[in-house]
């Protein structure tokens, strides 16, 4: 079993995907640095399984996805594996599409340690928060390869950076640098090279200390209300509040504050 320096014991590792826990935070590391952490069919399936397992694990309250090395977070699908005549074409990045379309309940942070191109950028779009290395670059170069950014780029990028900026990236295929991505709102936080994962872990730990039910409902409400008319959005928010206020944690939070002690969340 691989163990990341400074982390707890690895809970799973298959060579190309490393999995480790740091208290209530699970870290998934794409480990193909020789191929810029590009996603193959097998790796895509394993990453999807790992995300599902983390989401179902009551011990896990936040997830961090990163890549090995400092050159790349993820270069997207492995182009060497793509063959237009093969039924395997594109399967390696389907996990990206699923993550962007169906967003799991547990908060996911992308720790972008290098370039995020194609499906790698789309994987990042499927995450809730992004911590980026200051040297990272971001691109959707599919048009340069006769392909489409159909794993989320065409749909979700404009939600994050606006239509004009999304079109610039989609139509030119040219990369933008980390300061520009930060200015556009594509990433939340910039970190010095070599400190990306540590910064993402600190952010994840803050999330993990909060009431899990409140965190999950807050995440769900933000995404579910995004495309609703305002009246429906308010109604959905009220329904979430009505459910949460009946929970034990809604009693425990104010009680712990009054008693000046850390809350003990029961997730009930």
From TrEMBL:
Reaction catalyzed: a 4-saturated-(3S)-3-hydroxyacyl-CoA = a (3E)-enoyl-CoA + H2O; a (3S)-3-hydroxyacyl-CoA = a (2E)-enoyl-CoA + H2O
Homology family: Belongs to the enoyl-CoA hydratase/isomerase family.
GO biological-process terms attached to the record: fatty acid beta-oxidation
EC number: 4.2.1.17
Source organism of the structure: Actinomadura physcomitrii
Keyword Kinase: no
Keywords carried by this UniProt record: Lipid metabolism, Lyase
Recorded superkingdom: Bacteria
Pfam families with a match to the protein in the record: ECH_1
GO MF entries: enoyl-CoA hydratase activity
Protein name as annotated: enoyl-CoA hydratase
